[in-house]
Amino acid sequence: MPKRIIITGGSGKAGQFIIAHLLAQNYDILNLDLNPLPAPLSNKVHTLKVDLTDNGQVHGALHSHFHLTEPFREPLRQVPDAVIHLAGYARNMIVPDNETFRGNTLSTYNVIEAACRMGVPKIITASSLCAYGVAFAEGDVDYPSFPVDEEVDTNPMDVYGLTKVIGERTARSFARRFGTDIYAMRLGAIVAPEELRSRFEEYMHSPEQYKVIRMPEILG
Fold it and tell me: CATH fold of 4-191, please?
């Protein structure tokens, strides 16, 4: 029997590539997302529309069938082998800050809590390099040493980075409480193959646009 994985936010940019990779490894997948998967992935993976900020919906979704068949051929209440949590607002200024905070922190809490209480043995959640507080800082940021690594303090100013730090602490707390293997991956920018040329040509030809400059330098 193939291993069963539930992924949240699988319809997003990173999620689609992860789903394609897992399908190639013969995993059985259920996608929890408010948006549908595009074809051809939608022909192989069922998407259950779930509001992850609703704790009851999350618990119900984790106990769901993976496939819509008549009749259902798989036994209900199977514990997934893993949960991958990618869903959430992907940056600042998609919605107002308070909604970014509510949506990201509450969905992460609900998914981790439901998976731990269900007995899921492994959880992977998407954190971000924004936890270090560089990308959306208000002005320049100084660090005691470079390159920045995992030992550097996480001290973001922006709400998106803050939600990722809270998500990491949530994961740590539940891992200690339940003994579950939980991994928070601090992801960098998610760039699709077709975006590589345009994105990195910008970086190479106009690096000054991406330099963080102190306000006194701007004001003269």
Answer: Rossmann fold (3.40.50)
